[in-house]
Specification:
Number of domains: 4
Shape: elongated
Number of strands: 0
Distance between the termini: 45 Å
Radius of gyration: 36 Å
CATH topology of the largest domain: Rna Polymerase Sigma Factor, Chain: A
Structural class: mainly alpha
Largest sheet: none
CATH superfamily of the largest domain: RNA polymerase sigma factor, region 2, helix turn helix motif
CATH class of the largest domain: Mainly Alpha
Strand content: under 5%
């Protein structure tokens, strides 16, 4: 068998499923494929996985390749090109997923630190400030109300920068405890963010001028006149005459200043009257926004009800999306496809993959649509089109709704598809559908998916799902106990799980368990 050509061996496998022939091909080219993969991904485990994918693809395409190659032609070129495509696909998918998840995670963490409602804090803030001692109140006002740095605060209070920092931190902690006793749970970092953003508002235009003018009038007109009257009692007639003239001059000046104050006050009232219609317009706009929000909520409920009552909806949505795309192309006068027609759905799928490598996304969509048309049960095609809708096409051509529909159709055909389950959970979370996202993460956590293509392995993948479900419990459900349970389970499976310690520390802080929170905040695990 060693003297047979590659194509002869491949034909033996294609015609008779001769496993010995296929093993001979693998033996000839395993080193070449593995080395090509290793040069691109720089990971032995990943290179081994990619090599396995390439030879699996070779077995699947044995018929076509045996007919396309001459008897004397080797498979080296095809295998090298297939390895290149597989490595680029892996790098592309890994980069996209990590970027997408990191951005989403950073947004969640940012929201967690500033989600405190100012309307809850505002009525009790000044009472809380009064509960502080003079030194703490002065430090807090200078730091966050006057927005001075710690050096300036320390200079004003006559203490070192470190002492100023401790005084400010102590004041913030006492404020947090004050609000906690009144049923307002807020972390120290969140409290600082809300106070800094909302506590000090700009005074109305002209108020400072009005105050200054009134103060000057009181200081010069009334005070001076009173003092002069007292001295007049003890003066001679001539002196009284001179003083009377002087008082008249001062009174005239006081009247002039009073008139100016009245004019300024009238100007302020005019401005306030001009602002009144604007306030009414703002109120109307707010009411319109509330009404619109209620209508959207009603439509969302109707949509959920429709989904429950129609099990064929997801399948039909994929077909409707294809028809809409075709209709849009026809309406825009788009030229018919210039790509040569292919025979099978798998060929269209493979060409779509090549288009993706070259960033030819419209051509990729066209081929994926054709693959699905020829084979409505091709799960891989739905998965790739969902990724295309989500990441590469403009919203008017794709979007989250179309992506979720394709992921859902993929899961109907292949319920254990890890990537479709993971991606749909992320889209549900981004759309605020907490229960649906929790359901998908739970399927992964329970191990009811195929982990064979996950380079991180089963345990790290489950740990990642636990962190994401914990974040939904923390952010959307406000169920901090369940969130802590998920973070703890994730840490047990992967001690270096990203964000698990920090997020668990935030939950402990919200529950008032400050010592546990400090321990978690102090841990910075190594990144995988």
């Amino acid at each position: 068998m060693n003297d047979q050509s590659d194509v002869q061996l491949l034909r033996d496998y294609a015609d008779r499923r001769d496993e010995v022939a296929f093993c001979e091909i693998v033996g000839r080219y395993a080193d070449l494929v593995y080395s090509a993969a290793l040069r691109q991904v720089e990971s032995s485990a990943t290179a081994s996985d990619l090599a396995q994918r390439v030879f699996t693809d070779l077995a699947r395409k044995a018929d076509a390749l045996a007919n396309a190659h001459t008897e004397t032609k080797s498979l080296a070129g095809w295998l090298h090109r297939a390895t290149r495509y597989a490595a680029l696909n892996h790098l592309r998918d890994t980069r996209r997923r990590h970027t997408h998840e990191r951005l989403a995670m950073e947004q969640l963490l940012t929201n967690s630190e500033s989600s405190v409602d100012w309307l809850q804090l505002r009525p009790a803030l000044d009472e809380a400030l009064d509960s502080l001692d003079d030194e703490e109140r002065e430090a807090l006002l200078l730091r966050y109300f006057k927005k001075q740095n710690l050096s300036a605060v320390g200079l004003a209070l006559g203490v070192s920068d470190d002492a100023a920092q401790k005084r400010v931190s102590r004041a913030v902690e006492r404020l947090r405890e004050f609000f906690a006793k009144r049923g307002i749970t807020v972390g120290a970092s969140g409290l600082v963010v809300v106070i800094s953003a909302n506590a000090v508002q700009a005074a109305p235009v002209g108020l400072a001028v009005t105050i200054s003018t009134a103060a000057a009038l009181v200081g010069t007109g009334i005070a001076t006149t009173t003092a002069t009257a007292i001295k007049t009692i003890a003066m001679t007639t001539l002196q009284k005459t001179l003083v009377t003239a002087t008082v008249a001059v001062l009174a005239g000046a006081g009247i002039y200043e009073a008139r100016q104050a009245v004019q300024l006050r009238d100007q302020v009232q005019t401005l306030q009257q001009q602002q009144a219609p604007l306030a009414e317009q703002i109120a109307q706009l707010r009411q319109s926004m509330i009404d619109a929000t209620n209508r959207v909520a009603g439509l969302s409920d109707e949509l959920v009800s429709a989904k429950k009552n129609n099990p064929e909806l997801l399948k039909l949505r994929g077909e409707v999306g294809t028809l809409r795309a075709q209709l849009a192309d026809a309406g825009n006068g788009k030229k018919p496809s210039e790509q040569p027609p292919l025979a099978t759905a798998r060929e269209y799928y493979n060409r779509a993959d090549r288009h993706a490598m070259n960033h030819e996304y419209e051509a990729q969509l066209e081929d994926l649509n054709k693959a699905i048309e020829l084979d409505p049960n091709m799960a891989d095609a739905y998965m790739e089109r969902g990724n295309l809708y989500s990441m590469n096409l403009p919203k008017e051509r794709g979007g989250d709704e179309k992506a979720v529909a394709d992921y859902s159709r993929c899961l109907e055909i292949k319920p254990d598809d890890f990537s479709a389950r993971w991606n749909r959970a992320n889209h549900y979370r981004g759309a605020g559908k907490a229960d649906e996202a929790i359901a998908d993460w739970t399927v992964i956590i329970q191990g009811d998916v195929d982990f064979s293509r996950q380079l991180e392995g089963k345990f790290k993948s489950i740990a990642g799902a636990l962190v994401w479900r914990g974040l939904i419990y923390q952010q959307n459900k406000k169920d901090y106990s369940k969130a802590i349970a998920d973070y703890t389970a994730a840490i047990q499976m992967n001690p270096n799980a990203e964000y698990a310690h920090r997020s668990r520390g935030e939950c402990y802080e919200l529950l008032g368990e400050t010592e546990k929170a400090r321990q978690d905040f102090a841990i910075e695990p190594k990144r995988n």
